[in-house]
Amino acid sequence: MKIKIIKCSNSMLWYNKHIGEEFEVKFIEDKAYWTRERDGVFNALNWIYKEDATRRTLPRLDMSRISVKAESAFGSANTGGAWLSSARVVRCWVKSRNERNPRI
């Protein structure tokens, strides 16, 4: 996803001299986009306030791989986050040998 810087709410921020330019978004947080600076020796990862930029593509159109956490206990970007029903722990003892027909 790309964003375009439309303003800079603080003249001391790194992107003050980049108003009107587009940047590729690496990560998204609640109040900021994370992107790489183009100028400079280090190509540093830095943030841009969401209020200072606009999206250049439709929301979630090309964001399938953008995530803040790469992997967690509930899955990753590839596996999803749902628990399977078979993964639940059963803590009760089944009295019959056949769960479907208790008379057998």
Task: Give a description of the structure.
The protein is mainly β. The chain has a domain at 2-67. The protein has no helices and seven strands. It has strands spanning 2-5, 22-28, 32-36, 45-49, 53-55, 71-72, 75-76. The strands form two sheets. It has a five-stranded antiparallel β-sheet with strand order 4-3-2-1-5, with no helix packed on it. The protein has a two-stranded antiparallel ribbon with strand order 6-7. A hairpin with a 2-residue loop joins strand 6 and strand 7. It is elongated. It starts with a strand and ends in a 28-residue tail after the last strand. The model has no long low-confidence stretch (mean pLDDT 74).
Supply the key terms:
mainly beta; two-stranded antiparallel ribbon; 27% strand
Tell me the fraction of residues in β-strands, as a range: 25-35%
Distance between the termini: 60 Å
Gyration radius, in Å: 24 Å
Based on CA inertia axes, which overall geometry fits? Answer: elongated
Structural class: mainly beta
Which stretches are poorly predicted, pLDDT < 50 over at least 5 residues?
Answer: none
Overall pLDDT: 74
The biggest beta sheet reads: 5 strands, antiparallel
